[in-house]
């Protein structure tokens, strides 16, 4: 479970919008809104990536997709290990000599 967000989404959106629309420095907007300047700087960079203005970061959609794909890969690897163990077990069962109970 992810950690709770320190800042509400509305505050994040408002702060990013203010930096991008007014051109004011991130540090001034952060101080006015009571946000850590590096948090706001990160949000602005992510908003720029989401808008296609930056190529050095994944967009939010790409990041979410990557997270889901990694989760799916981990699940498939676990399933593969289970299947490998089951195949070894059944191969051993087949190789055992069949004995009939004596009468």
Round the Cα radius of gyration to an integer and report it: 27 Å
Could you give a short account of the major beta sheet? none
* Total helical segments: 4
Mean pLDDT over the residues: 92
Gross morphology: rod-shaped
Structural class: mainly alpha
Percentage of residues assigned to helices: 55-70%
Order of helices and strands: HHHH
Write the layout of secondary structure elements.
Elements: H1 9-22, H2 26-33, H3 37-50, H4 60-95
Helix pairs in contact: 1-2, 1-3, 2-3
Write a concise synopsis of the structure shown.
The protein has helices at 9-22, 26-33, 37-50, 60-95. With 103 residues, the chain is mainly α. It is rod-shaped and about 95 Å long.
3D structure, described in words:
The chain is mainly α and 103 residues long. Helix content is 70%, strand content 0%. It is built from 4 helices and no strands. The relative contact order is 0.07.
Features:
103 residues, mainly alpha, 4 helices, rod-shaped
């Amino acid at each position: 479970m992810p950690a709770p967000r320190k800042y509400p989404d509305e505050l994040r959106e408002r702060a990013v919008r203010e930096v991008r629309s007014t051109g004011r420095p991130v540090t001034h907007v952060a101080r006015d809104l009571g946000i850590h300047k590096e948090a706001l700087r990160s949000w602005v960079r992510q908003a720029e990536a989401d808008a296609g203005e930056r190529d050095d970061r994944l967009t939010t959609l790409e990041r979410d997709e990557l997270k889901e794909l990694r989760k799916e890969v981990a699940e498939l690897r676990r399933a593969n290990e289970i299947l490998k163990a089951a195949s070894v077990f059944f191969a051993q069962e087949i190789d055992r000599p069949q004995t009939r109970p004596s009468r």
